[in-house]
Structures are given as structure tokens and as C-alpha cells.
């Protein structure tokens, strides 16, 4: 009798599990970040820069935002680790003036940190395979402006 009850309970448990709502994995907005609009907005470019230098996002996510790909990830990783331009002591914002010419777009990255003057880097983005990526030459400008000990060899 006990055995029959165990079999019935196991059958009910297995049968009812088919009716339980399945847990849906939600896409990670950081993993899915891409600027695909025809002309990128300042808000989109700003969000991309914040992702690159203000978050501990995985290397693969950062590489997808850079013209130089995985070879160039060392730059935003170092800037993030140093904490130059992320809260609580720093910040960044992308502003105009902007230019747009086909698959090239420019804007200005303004980055500041406590006790230091605001740094302005003229930056260029390039549309590659339908996504706007920060150009390698912009990373090189940033390396030079900040005086980072990184060779600019990812172009």
C-alpha cells in the first residue's frame, strides 16, 4: 500500500511539473547592448561610454563596443580599474558638437574626477556590421590624454 502511494505521488509530481510555468531567462541588457540606429544619439553614445569605463562588464561585451575588438579591451578595463571616470569620484558624459558622415560619427567625451580638471576627448565612432563602435584612434587619443602606459597597437 505504501509503495503504491509513493508511485501515485511521484506520478502526480511529474505530471504537474509539466503545467508549472517555466522560468524564462531574461536577456542581460549589458550583454545585449548595441547601438544600431542609423545616426547614434548622444544618449546612446553616452550609455556606451558608461558601459565601457563605468561598469565591470565582461571583456566580450566591451570588445563588441570597440573597433579594435578584444585587442582594445585593455583600455576601458584599465580606465575602469583606476576608477577615473566613474562614481563616486568621477563621471563622464558625451556631448556635442557632433558630426555625422555615413558610417562615421563624432562627438566629445567629457570626463572628470575629483580634484582634476575635466578631460575632453574628441571621439569618433564607426558603424561596422550595423553597430556603432568606438574607433581605435579615439582610444589612442584617450591613452595619450590620460598618459596611460598602454601601447596603441590595436588599430
UniProtKB/TrEMBL annotation:
Residues 39-148 form the Low molecular weight antigen MTB12-like C-terminal domain. InterPro entries: Mtb12-like_C (IPR058644). Residues 1-25 form the signal peptide. Keywords: Signal. It holds the Pfam family Mtb12_C. Belongs to the MTB12 family. This is Low molecular weight antigen MTB12-like C-terminal domain-containing protein.
Amino acid at each position: 500500500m505504501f509503495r503504491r502511494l509513493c508511485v501515485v505521488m511521484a506520478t502526480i509530481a511529474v505530471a504537474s511539473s509539466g503545467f508549472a510555468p517555466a522560468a524564462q531567462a531574461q536577456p542581460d541588457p549589458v550583454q545585449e547592448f548595441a547601438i544600431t540606429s542609423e545616426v547614434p544619439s548622444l544618449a546612446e553614445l553616452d550609455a556606451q561610454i558608461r558601459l565601457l569605463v563605468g561598469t565591470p562588464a565582461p571583456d566580450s561585451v566591451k570588445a563588441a563596443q570597440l573597433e579594435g575588438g578584444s585587442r582594445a579591451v585593455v583600455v576601458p578595463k584599465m580606465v575602469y580599474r583606476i576608477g577615473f571616470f566613474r562614481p563616486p569620484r568621477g563621471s563622464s558624459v558625451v556631448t556635442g558638437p557632433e558630426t555625422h558622415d555615413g558610417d562615421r560619427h563624432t562627438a566629445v567625451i567629457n570626463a572628470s574626477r575629483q580634484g582634476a580638471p575635466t578631460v575632453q576627448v574628441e571621439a569618433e565612432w564607426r558603424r561596422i556590421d550595423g553597430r556603432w563602435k568606438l574607433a581605435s584612434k579615439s582610444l589612442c587619443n584617450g591613452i595619450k590624454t590620460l598618459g596611460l602606459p598602454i601601447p596603441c597597437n590595436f588599430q
